[in-house]
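Aim 2, interim progress. The first record below pairs a target sequence with its structure tokens.
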Amino acid sequence: MVGLSFASQATILPAFAAHLGAPNVVIGAIPAVMTLGWFLPSLFAAGHTEALSRKLPFVLRYTVWERVPFLVLALAAFVVAERAPALVLGVLLTLLLVITGVGGVLMPAWMDVVGRAIPVTLRGRFFAASNLAAAAAGFAGSFLSAHVLATMPAPASFGVCFLCASACMALSYAALALVREPAATASSPPVALGTYLGRIPPLLRRDANLRRFLVARAFAVVSVMGGGFYTVYALSTWEAPPAQAGVFTTLLLAGQIAGNVTLGWLADRMGHRLVIVAGVAAMIGANALALGASSLGAFGVVFVLAGVQGA
């Protein structure tokens, strides 16, 4: 989370794209590309993941490609951004697709490891505690990113932020390598991709709850798409300096901390559906406030609510 505070998809990345002269369609493509990367590959990777007796080595082998792109992005900001901003915009979108695509492929394996390690009745508090610790560390990192953006000229300031993200990602890989995977009771036999995908329509037909959940999830994802424009809109409307993107990151992580403290407790005691509803309500509130905010200070609340949704 510290690394992502230096390259937040809601604040730093849109501000970087705006500095490069990105049109609205490219800024809007940032959350779209990342959403596509996170959710679509899991569908094709889950069958392979189920057949693995141990999941963690699979994660460690490929998660490096979630981390290396931040270093490439830093080099692009330092070396190429001023001379070829359009090229760097293309690099940015491509690398975001790589980062989230690899993350999407690895997500079923990682969730399997977590599922075997954490009892069902503790998962809400587990995710709340881990996210709280990560958000608190990212909160501290956001002050550094705000300082860098305030004291260094762009695009070098963004390059430093991405370099800091790279260093944090390297440290997170070292920590991940120390994780001990619980023994699996059994692994599923390999299933051909076509056969695996063929099971989905019958599953959706017989499981009404799953259908309703997926529809709700789809609408929730669409509601988040506006988040990519929050930072650019605020910087443009109130002519705020680039350092304000770092302040917005601080507010975003403050919302995540508040959300993790309350929603994790609620999840274990009152059910996870309530938490999902609360997150959707926070995002609706963020979008409504973004439309009506009359000052930069009031607009900051938008990021707090977006952080609650992200918790």
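The second target in this work package is listed in the same format:
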Amino acid sequence: IAVVASFRDRLVDPELVLIGEVGLGGQVRPISQLELRLKEASKLGFRRAIVPKGQAIKVEGLEIVEVSRVVDAIAQALKA
């Protein structure tokens, strides 16, 4: 995301966290312990999280966005 943002001369929201594993085909894969990671991200001040589709968990104070592909994550991360 940082490379694309730099290339497009865009800023990434400092309150955004992206969590997931990236596959060779550009898919965003599920990860373990997502709930724990999201709770910690919220404690650290993040307000928005992009996570693998199908793994959304409600965490107070955190807006969750689900994506299945890296291109979708880029679009969400760079959305104004």
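The radius of gyration is 12 Å. This observation will shape the mutagenesis plan for the next reporting period.
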